[in-house]
Design brief:
Radius of gyration: 34 Å
Distance between the termini: 22 Å
Shape: elongated
Strand content: 5-15%
Structural class: alpha+beta
Order of helices and strands: HHHHHHHHHEEEEHHEEEHE
Number of strands: 8
Strand order of the largest sheet: 1-2-4-3
Number of helices: 12
Helix content: 40-55%
Largest sheet: 4 strands, antiparallel
Length: 394
């Protein structure tokens, strides 16, 4: 199809409205890239998807992709061994769980929705990856102690050392011998080390390392020498924890990389299913129906035109106009009629009628239902041309 003529007919605006009904970026991309097909089997298959989605949503309006996300950029990152963050791994898990749930819901109704079931069958469940991410990362994005034995050991020791450090520091600040030298009797942190606030004029009365001072210079924040070793051990354990968390995340990232092909297929299947749902929602918004699409043979003698000509649009409405005020039109070609001339005064609706016919033909061949009455029929067009004076926008 020629993009220039589709633009004249404002077909891209139809795609924008369709994309607004899509639930994630991958299906929005498909919606915005949708083009009219030129092969009848492809058109009929696409129309079947839309009709099945309409029926499915009518009996189960809550069916959806369930919060799935387009995680394909994360798959590229994983293949490069760039460590994924816990929240990114949760996005992948959530997407796989949503895909699994949708696949099972549609498969149970395979007899009623065979075309949608064919798409859903391409979803890969990846149960091992779902389980492993769930085992290692909590729902709020924290790496769990149970992610590895080493992490559990490090965190246990970290808690013990941290408590010992605080106990010793509190003992220092609460000592009656030290209280005259302290600005306040509390423990705080500076540069990742626990310190106590010493009055500047008593510098040296409590042996320690100065890490900071107050804006006025009246207070020095010192790390008592008596706690340096505990502070060092606490800090080392923090570094050990960070390294072990990174190792866990890298292992999960490698697992994502191994499954990246399956996840990519799943995203593609989800996008196709969500596009079908978007088409169904848009059809419902328009009050649209599935058109009958037919192929007209090139040999006039072989055409079956006993019922109607090549175009039969009943109560057709332009989809971009206000449905409350738009005037429906019948455009019916009589048998063996292939040219229609519309005449009339300015503002009489000629342009709207022309655009309605062209736009509905493009929509039908893109697998979209059309805002018209049941029984509307359109032939297969190899191309659609529009030459409208001033390229009027309606």
């Amino acid at each position: 199809m020629n993009l220039k003529h589709l633009n004249i007919l404002e077909f891209p605006k139809i795609l924008e409205r369709l994309a607004n009904h899509a639930d994630f970026s991958a299906s929005k991309e498909l919606a915005l890239a949708l083009m009219p097909a030129c092969h009848l089997p492809e058109i009929l298959e696409s129309q079947t998807e839309t009709s099945e989605a309409c029926r499915l949503l009518s009996v189960n309006p809550d069916v959806s992709i369930g919060g799935a996300r387009d995680v394909r950029p994360l798959l590229d990152q994983a293949r490069r061994s760039s460590v994924l963050l816990p929240t990114e791994l949760l996005d992948i898990r959530q997407t796989l769980v949503a895909a699994r749930n949708l696949e099972r819901a549609i498969t149970r109704l395979e007899d009623q929705f065979p075309r949608l079931a064919d798409i859903a069958a391409r979803i890969q469940e990846c149960p091992g990856l779902i389980q492993e991410i769930g085992r290692c990362i909590s729902d709020n994005g924290e790496v769990l102690d149970t992610a590895s034995p080493d992490l559990a050991r490090i965190r246990s020791e970290l808690g013990i050392v941290h408590q010992r450090l605080l106990d010793r520091l509190n003992k220092i600040v609460q000592s009656s011998r030290n209280s005259p030298y302290l600005q306040e009797t509390f423990v705080t942190q500076r540069q990742g080390r626990y310190v106590i606030p010493l009055r500047a004029e008593f510098k040296g009365r409590i042996q320690g390392i100065v890490h900071d001072q107050s804006a006025s210079g009246a207070t020095l924040f010192i790390e008592p020498l008596a706690t340096v070793e505990l502070n060092n051990r606490w800090r080392q354990l923090q570094l050990d924890e960070e390294e072990e968390v990174r190792r866990v995340l890298l292992a999960l990232t490698d697992l994502v990389a191994e499954e990246s092909g399956h996840i990519g297929w799943t995203i593609e299947a989800l996008a196709e299913l969500d596009l079908a749902f978007a088409k169904a929602k848009y059809a419902d918004e328009l009050g649209a129906v599935e058109p009958k699409c037919v192929r007209l043979e090139s040999d006039a003698a072989s055409r079956d035109l006993s019922q109607a000509g090549p175009v039969k649009l009943l109560a057709a409405r332009h989809p971009l106009l206000d449905p409350e005020s738009v005037v429906a039109v019948d455009v019916v070609f009589l048998p063996e009629t292939f040219i229609l001339v519309i005449t009339g005064p300015n503002t009489g609706g000629k342009t709207v009628t022309l655009k309605t016919v062209g736009l509905l033909a493009a929509m039908a061949q893109a697998g979209l239902h059309i805002p018209a009455a049941e029984g509307s029929t359109l032939p297969l067009f190899d191309n659609i041309y529009a030459d409208i004076g001033g390229e009027q926008s309606i």
